[in-house]
Amino acid sequence: MMKKTMLLPLFLVFTLVSQAQKDDEKSTQVFKKFKVDVSAGYAKPQGSGTDGGALFAIEPKYALMDQLSVGLRMEVAVTVKIDRVGDDSKAKGNGSYLLTGDYYFNNNKFRPFGGVGAGLFTLASVDANSNINTAADIPTSNKFGFMARTGFEYGHLRFGLEYNFVADKAGYFGVKLGACIGGGRKG
Q1: Domain containing 114: what range?
Q2: What sections of the chain are H helices per DSSP?
Q3: Domains in the chain: how many in total?
Q4: Above 90 in pLDDT, residue 15?
Q5: 86-143, pLDDT tens digit by residue?
Q6: Cα 12 from chain centroid?
């Protein structure tokens, strides 16, 4: 009885895999379904509270079809304002987890896209004049926000312009340059 119980799931997996291979052979999709975008760039916060800073993002994606992919963007943006006259320097950090969608306008090597995303932003801010002794003392807050973006991919190179809309004037503009790992043309 135990052997029969173990063989049934194995048989089902084998059947599903062989059916998926048949479906894949019939598919007219030009690009591989899974990729990971890794990007770094410049972050310019909303308003005049900070000067600018850096950002880093990683975003695994799955292509529902060649023109449409969905993903999960995980990003960290750190911005700094340095007061050159006084002693009033500030640093702000944004961490985000967004569900994203990108639409690609063609299937060529140069692929312009537009996209949106929505999710959770974790915000932190530190004033150089404050008496913070440990990282546990840094005040944080969580806000829901969304993002709009445009850009292009050329082969495995990715360039993007994004605006992150977050409450309490915590939004920021990002300019990114990165690489796509996987997701290239099939065959």
Answers
A1: 37-182
A2: 2-26
A3: 1
A4: no
A5: 566 778 899 999 999 999 999 999 999 999 999 999 999 887 665 555 555 677 899 9
A6: 35
Residue 6 lies in a domain: no
pLDDT tens per residue, range 51-79: 899 999 999 999 999 999 999 999 999 98
Identify whether 1 is part of a domain. no
What letter represents residue 50's amino acid? T
In-domain check, residue 50: yes
3-state secondary structure of 42: strand
Cβ atoms within 10 A of the Cβ of 87, count? 7
Burial of 61 (0-12, 13-18, 19+ CB in 10 A): buried
Taking the C-alpha atoms of residue 5 and residue 16, their distance in angstroms, rounded to an integer, is 18
Q: How far apart are CA 75 and CA 61, in angstroms?
A: 14
Token reading at 67: 């023109």
Helix, strand, coil percentages, rounded to 5, for the chain: 15, 60, 25
DSSP string, 53-91: EEEEEEEEEEEEETTEEEEEEEEEEEEEE--SSSS--EE
CATH number at residue 114: 2.40.160.20
Say if 10 falls within a structural domain: no
- Cα–Cα dist 57/79, whole Å: 15
Tokens 């987890």 locate to 97
